[in-house]
Design goal:
Layout: H1 3-25, H2 32-56, H3 60-74, H4 77-89, H5 97-115, H6 117-120, E1 124-129, E2 138-142, H7 144-170, H8 174-197, H9 209-226, H10 238-243, E3 248-252, E4 257-260, H11 262-267, H12 280-283, H13 285-294, E5 300-308, E6 311-323, E7 329-338, H14 340-362, H15 374-396, E8 402-404, E9 410-413, H16 415-421, H17 425-428, H18 433-436, H19 438-443
Antiparallel strand pairs: 1-2, 3-4, 3-7, 5-6, 6-7, 8-9
Helix pairs in contact: 1-2, 1-9, 2-3, 2-4, 2-9, 3-5, 4-7, 5-7, 7-8, 8-9
């Protein structure tokens, strides 16, 4: 059996799998994280396809040609892993201007050095075929430029791993499972790469990293299908979800509960929760009956009475379909808002108005009366406090948050939106989304559909 050809063919298969994943991600490219993962899988595909052709080539000169092609993909892998992890975990603040410059320049410099290595020998000085092995691979005498690039790439991957582990510890639910897949998908290939570069493995001239990336591709594909890795809200949403004071529930198309926020756990006294394990009918039977009766193709808003923890309360209920970029529905978003006090205030106001109207209608002479406005002042103070609290929560969120009314006119524009776009809130509020943020308006062509 010709093991050299066999490894070459397996590398080509691995590269095709990675290319297929990149093609699968193409419709999601408007999302920053999806675009970075797509480019990552494309880079890995170039690397592994070139590696396969290296083994299938008949002589050293042709093999070295494919080695240079491999550098066009592998030089970007560490950078794209780091940027993907930063985007996924919401740590984009660690990407300063200098680091952005390095992330762009170092891969280009590495590719340039690899393509012109025969003139300077900065990436490798000698390369020869191993003749005493059943697998005919190239053995390189590495030089400082190669080890400098390797240290830079490994440093980024180590940094990304630390960020992922911190996010894993603080995350929960389906996002923790997504992080597990991503950690495995990143760590397995680079463990094999370390074994190859430092000649720790048994077959020293064979790089098993491309085969490990095939395993990563399968893990990512499983994450897409099993845990809706890109169809649900990204991991960075947790700061927003848990910052909301209203209960929020996310269901899949089978009405399984995929995510709840802290307010929901507190409201419904939920101690433990496993994403996708329980149906909404089992966890929230009364609420589920309302949702099932009123949901449809478009978002709906109703007012309903629900008994929770033995107390009858009035709730504002919003039921919205969750759509993928291809406009296919992937689940349901349910948001509850307690309006019990508001309803009680309305009832008290109506009762007071009826009392005064009856007095005026029954009196034969004009009546001048005074009313205590203490309660009105108190309600106004509570409304101002609630407004300021909501504003504070919105401005403390690490993600852009933009609120629009039913005519797509901007009503909320938080501090992060100011920082990212450079547009002050006073200039944004009261204007249309398409005018202020045309790029976002293109991604969300009909924001009123969710209102």
């Amino acid at each position: 059996m010709n093991w050299t050809l066999l490894i070459g063919f397996f590398s080509l298969i691995s590269g095709m799998i990675c290319a297929g994943i990149a093609i699968y991600l193409a419709p999601y490219r408007e999302k920053t994280g999806a675009r970075q993962l797509m480019l990552l899988m494309a880079g890995i595909s170039i690397w592994t396809l070139g590696y396969g052709m290296e083994f299938l080539s008949p002589n050293l000169s042709l093999k070295l040609f494919w080695v240079k092609i491999e550098y066009m993909g592998v030089s970007w892998v560490g950078v794209l892993i780091f940027k993907f992890v930063c985007t996924l975990t919401g740590k984009t603040d660690c990407l300063g201007k200098r680091l952005h410059f390095l992330l762009f320049v170092v891969p280009i410099l590495t590719i340039s050095l690899a393509l012109t290595n025969e003139f300077h020998g900065l990436m490798w000085q000698q390369a020869y075929l191993e003749s005493n092995s059943v697998i005919q691979g190239i053995i390189f005498q590495r030089t400082p430029a190669f080890w400098g690039y390797t240290a830079f790439s490994y440093g980024l991957i180590f940094w990304a791993t630390v960020i992922l582990i911190k996010a894993f510890v603080s995350s929960r639910g389906i996002y923790q499972k997504q992080l597990t897949l991503i950690l495995c998908g990143i760590m397995v290939p680079w463990l094999f790469n370390v074994l190859y570069l430092f000649e720790i493995q048994t077959i020293q001239n064979i790089d098993l990293t491309p085969f490990a990336f095939m395993v990563s591709g399968i893990l990512f594909a499983w994450g897409f299908l099993r845990y809706q890795l890109l169809n649900l809200i990204p991991l960075a949403h947790e700061a927003v979800m848990d910052g909301l004071g209203d209960p929020v529930i996310v269901m899949d198309m089978n009405d399984r509960v995929m995510e709840i926020n802290r307010a929901c756990s507190s409201t419904f006294a939920i101690q433990t929760f496993t994403p996708g394990q329980d149906s909404a009918n089992e966890m929230f039977p009364d609420l589920y009956r309302l949702v099932d009766a009123h949901r449809g193709e478009k978002a709906v808003k109703i007012e309903a009475a629900l008994t929770i923890k033995g107390i009858l309360q009035q709730w504002d209920l919003r039921i919205s379909p969750l759509l993928t970029p291809q406009k296919r529905q992937s689940g349901w978003l349910i948001v509850l808002r307690d309006i019990t006090q508001h309803k009680q205030s309305e009832a008290a106001l109506r009762k007071s108005e009826e009392k005064h109207r009856t007095m005026l209608e029954a009196s034969p002479t004009p009546i001048v009366y005074y009313t205590d406005i203490t309660r009105i002042r108190k309600v106004e103070q509570e409304l101002r406090f609630a407004r300021d609290s909501v504003k504070s929560i919105i401005n403390s969120m690490p993600s852009i948050l933009i609120g629009v009314d039913d005519k797509a006119m901007i009503t909320q524009w938080n501090i992060e939106a100011e920082n990212i776009t450079g547009i002050p809130a006073d200039h944004a509020r009261g204007k249309s989304l398409a005018t202020v943020f045309p790029r976002l308006a293109g991604i969300i062509p009909n924001p009123t559909g969710a209102l």
